[in-house]
Recover the amino acids of this structure.
């Protein structure tokens, strides 16, 4: 199992860290959260049930696509793109250089891209174009469902209560996994095992509840308003970006939340560590340390005296030494940090990672007293876009944009 070590978040390790009493002060609130989670108080907690879904239909579709296609294109944005991308890059690095069908993920506004693509496919394939499209969408309603019914597309239903940023373990991510030859049953097995591990009410026996409590308290009590996720593997770069959307969009409301930003070790250890240690003391760092990279390379002994310290070591040893050194450097500077120890990067442990961070995010939102499944500010941006583009029913938003343009045009704060 993935484990956590949060010693460097605590006051007996780092000045300004948290105390046992502060963590225990959340027991009653976490008890209420636990009952809300167990009782599925929010319909959107359905993401927890994805761990037990059947994959039979997805497996069949994936096999058909692998056998009959040269290219597989995903049109999606936000979680519908970041989730599949993080799966592909973590579990099938350099996929397009080694495998077929070639996989591409397009994140331009989804429906506009789809309309352009559908026209091109009609021109290329005539009446048979519909057999080449799979609509992964709500089982009953929505614009894409309407189009799918009209054009007779194949479909994979995504439960109506699955929010986009929590959708990676739904058909949104699993279909890509099946096409790419990822062990999606192993992915779900990992998510089930993590869900079981995170089902205890006791905060000291539940890694997700403990992480939620730590992140909530370190932000609210210690004013660490920036959350850095720092995995020590290039294969998890997109996972770090997935986490940023999950954390930001779920928690950033009602003046609550932390600002996340993605990082990657060892690159950002060298490009960002100076800021983290000697810049504003407003950050908390979460490491993802990989214990087994699946392969290793010995560092060649070229008998260069200044590099003799590398003799008899390997790249795995060097990467993990870099991680540990960064962890200790932060501790010495009084920067709170914690570590997730990931045994290896495979489907099983990726399933654990996805489920763990989704639970942590949802529970942290509940500790803030907010709904972690809404995104009202994002919806406002969408509605203003609809107004600009002339969508029926959004005339009031169009008027707002017209007024704004006039104000900007006549502003004295510009240089022509």
């Amino acid at each position: 199992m993935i484990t956590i070590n949060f010693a460097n978040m605590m006051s007996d390790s780092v000045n300004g860290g948290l105390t046992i009493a502060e963590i225990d002060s959340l027991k009653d609130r976490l008890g209420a959260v636990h009952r809300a989670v167990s009782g599925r108080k929010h319909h959107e907690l359905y993401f927890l049930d994805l761990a037990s879904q059947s994959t039979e239909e997805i497996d069949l579709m994936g096999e058909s696509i692998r056998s009959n296609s040269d290219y597989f294109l995903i049109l999606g944005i936000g979680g519908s793109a970041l989730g599949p991308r993080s799966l592909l890059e973590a579990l099938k690095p350099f996929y397009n250089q080694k495998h077929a069908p070639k996989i591409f993920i397009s994140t331009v506004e989804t429906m506009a891209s789809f309309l352009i693509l559908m026209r091109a496919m009609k021109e290329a394939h005539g009446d048979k174009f519909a057999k080449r499209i799979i609509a992964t969408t709500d089982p009953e309603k929505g614009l894409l469902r309407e189009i799918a019914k009209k054009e007779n597309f194949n479909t994979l239903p995504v439960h109506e209560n699955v929010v986009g940023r929590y959708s990676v373990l739904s058909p949104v991510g699993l279909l890509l996994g099946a096409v790419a030859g990822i062990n999606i049953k192993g992915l779900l097995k990992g998510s089930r095992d993590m869900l079981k591990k995170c089902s205890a009410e006791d905060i000291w026996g539940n890694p997700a509840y403990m992480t939620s409590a730590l992140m909530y308290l370190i932000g609210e009590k210690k004013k660490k308003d920036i959350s850095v996720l720092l995995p020590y593997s290039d294969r998890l770069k997109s996972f770090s970006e997935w986490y940023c959307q999950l954390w930001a969009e779920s928690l950033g409301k009602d003046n609550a939340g932390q600002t996340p930003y993605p990082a990657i070790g060892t690159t950002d250890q060298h490009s960002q560590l100076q800021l983290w240690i000697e810049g504003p003391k407003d950050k908390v760092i979460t490491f993802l340390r990989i214990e087994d990279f699946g392969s290793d390379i010995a560092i060649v002994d070229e008998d260069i005296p200044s590099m003799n310290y590398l003799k008899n070591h390997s790249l795995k040893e060097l990467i993990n030494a870099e991680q540990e050194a960064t962890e200790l450097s932060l501790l010495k500077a009084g920067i709170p940090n914690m570590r997730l120890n990931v045994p290896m990067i495979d489907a099983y442990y990726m399933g654990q990672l996805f489920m763990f961070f989704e639970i942590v995010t949802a529970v942290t939102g509940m500790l803030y007293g907010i709904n972690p499944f809404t995104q009202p500010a994002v919806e406002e941006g969408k509605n203003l876009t609809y107004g600009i583009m002339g969508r029926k029913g959004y005339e009031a938003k169009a008027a707002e944009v017209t007024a704004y343009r006039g104000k900007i045009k006549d502003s004295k704060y510009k240089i022509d």
